[in-house]
Write a structure and sequence with these properties.
Helix content is 11%, strand content 38%. The protein is mainly beta. The protein has one domain: OB fold (Dihydrolipoamide Acetyltransferase, E2P). The longest helix is centred in the last third of the chain and has 18 residues. The N terminus and C terminus are likely disordered.
Length: 194
């Protein structure tokens, strides 16, 4: 899937924090945002897989991007949430949860305000990034959700989710009162839901 941005578009992005840095992801990839909780550990999962959740009957793997970015694991607080996102791989859509310290906002970012990903100065591999967004005085790292996991890792996470069906069958369902509605009907999320 090509991740170029048409010069006439003003794509919307959801921003969130991981390890003190602000990241952004295209809002059309975000299904919803839920409060952190009900994550079930899966044996033999990679360190960056926090576990799986039962999201209204579907088992969804939860990725700790802090660990994926070779930082300390996310320490859950009252503002910790899970961004439910769609990842495209080989024309197949896979749903994953991304652990975030907190969600910031939804905003439009004109293509003129997007620069190539910096080759230095970030704690994230350049191939995980679409670019660097300029939002006023802030600089945001625009994540390429399709490249956060390799094909093998997505397959492994997907099989973990399938194996986790038994592990989470009796687990409580993630809260139905999401902070953000599914893509297409997105409202501004609560900032720092405490």
């Amino acid at each position: 899937m090509e991740n170029t941005i048409d010069a006439t578009q003003h794509p919307q992005y959801l921003t969130f924090f991981i390890g003190g840095e602000e990241y952004a992801v295209g809002i059309l990839r975000v299904r919803e945002i839920i409060q952190y909780g009900g994550v079930t550990r899966v044996p033999r999962a990679p360190r960056w897989v926090r576990g799986v959740i039962n999201l209204r009957g579907s088992v969804v793997p939860v990725i700790d991007l802090a660990v994926r970015f070779e930082q300390a694991p996310c320490a859950p607080t009252r503002s910790t949430c899970i961004v439910i996102a769609e990842v495209e791989l080989d024309s197949e859509s896979v749903v994953v949860g991304v652990l975030a310290d907190s969600v910031s906002q939804v905003f439009e970012l004109p293509v003129a305000d997007v620069q190539p990903a910096p080759s230095f100065g970030t704690r994230v591999r350049v191939d995980f990034l679409l670019g660097l967004g300029r939002a006023g005085e802030r600089l945001l790292l625009l994540l390429d959700v399709d490249k956060l996991l390799s094909a093998e890792e997505v397959a492994a996470v997907h099989s973990l989710a399938n194996a986790g069906d038994e592990a989470v069958a009796d687990a409580p369902t993630a809260p139905a009162d999401s902070l953000v509605e599914p893509a297409g009907a997105v409202a501004e999320p609560a900032v720092g839901a405490a």
